[in-house]
Amino acid sequence: MDIIVKTAGDDFASRMAQMFETVIHEGHGSLVLVFLIGVIFGGIIQYTRVDKFEKIAGFAMLKDTIVPKMLFLTVGLASIGLYFMVEAGYAHYHIKPIMWSGLIIGGTLFGIAMAIFGKCPGTGPVSIAEGRIDVLVGAIGGLFGGLVFTLYYSDFFKPLMGDSAGKLTLPSFFPGHEHLVVLIFGIVVTIIAFVIPKREFFDEADLEKLPPEERPDLKEVH
Amino acid sequence: MSRLPWWVGGILMAGLLLMTFSVFGADRPLGASTYVPYFAGLVFDLDPKKYIYLEHIKNPGAWEGVMLLGALFGGFVTSVFITKSFRFSLIPTGWKKYKNNSVLSRLLWSFVAGFIMIIGARMAGGCTSGHFMSGMSQMAISSMIFGTVVMIALVITGRFFYNVKDK
Q1: Residue of A nearest to B32 (CA)
Q2: Does residue A193 share a domain with residue A142?
């Protein structure tokens, strides 16, 4: 039996339905899988507490290093795994182009905003889901940012971002030695994750809710 | 256990990335900033045929939109049942300690920072997920440039925006 949903309208509900429809026909995983990827993504971020202001703005103040340690470890492990998956035909690369002014202006704005907001577009929704009203206000600001970007994309932002200087990757600079480059990159980045000194900035409001034996700040520092 | 150690998080996140990239999974990178202009198009009722950017992001925006709904659900369930950290709050403890006690100040800065953040992410073509995690895992030069610029801007802003020296 086929369920037919009318999604031809341009009101908000129809367009939400069109969003699901797009994902179903897009061929990048079933609707359930895409939702599940989100659930796991949100779960990992929440369970490791890297969505907290104290972790992200704390890193900007160099009082907490959990976020870079986790990011570098993820990249180190995934880069090696992904390379061999691509070699075996189980995955594809999707490289973003080098657009110098887009990357530099965009990266600068992003870094400034990340330090002040203490969130990024991936961790923000998780913070909203755990009840942070200030992050919800920031997300509304983000929606307006998305609106302005969409409205002035052709006239202002696209020319400002510049032309693509190609989709280069690190191994492409060392033809014939790709395997070695990938292994060295992956291992070095993983080592960086462990070498970055561990500093933690805890949120008292969270710690108070825990019994003393579970408080990470009272545990011995390893 | 109220939270996972960073290295467990890193291993799990690498696993999730590989699953997303794999042809058995979604056969695409994991990203989390394209959904914002996508939802802006929905909320402000912009005609996708009129705005070329909405046409560009029709597919990735929808994909990330569904993923975001999953992230909201996953974050909510984890915060309520596992870490038990769900609570409503208007101002982070760290903001009170290193910035000020004003709720209005925090909300205004959040709004402004959220606005700038999305403009920045869309100009660079990605965020912490799309560029830093997914891009650097592919050893993309563009993502390494982005990662370096963000880290520098982040640490400089952190140094000057907050009263780090006082305490």
Answers
A1: A122
A2: yes
Instruction: Indicate if A35 and A75 belong to the same structural domain.
Output: no
Closest by Cα among A117, A123, A122, A126 to A57: A117
Length of chain A: 222
The per-residue pLDDT for range B38-80, each reduced to its tens digit, is 999 999 999 988 999 999 999 999 999 999 999 999 999 999 9
Nearest to B78 among A46, A110, A112 (CB): A46
Say whether both A142 and A80 belong to one domain.
Answer: yes
**Whether A96 and A156 share a structural domain:** yes
Domain that holds residue A159: 52-221
d(CA B109, CA A126): 19
ipTM: 0.96
Q: What is the total count of domains within chain A? A: 2
Q: Across the interface, which of B66, B106, B157 has its CB nearest the CB of A35?
A: B66
Chain A partners of B25 at a C-beta cutoff of 8 Å? 29, 33, 37
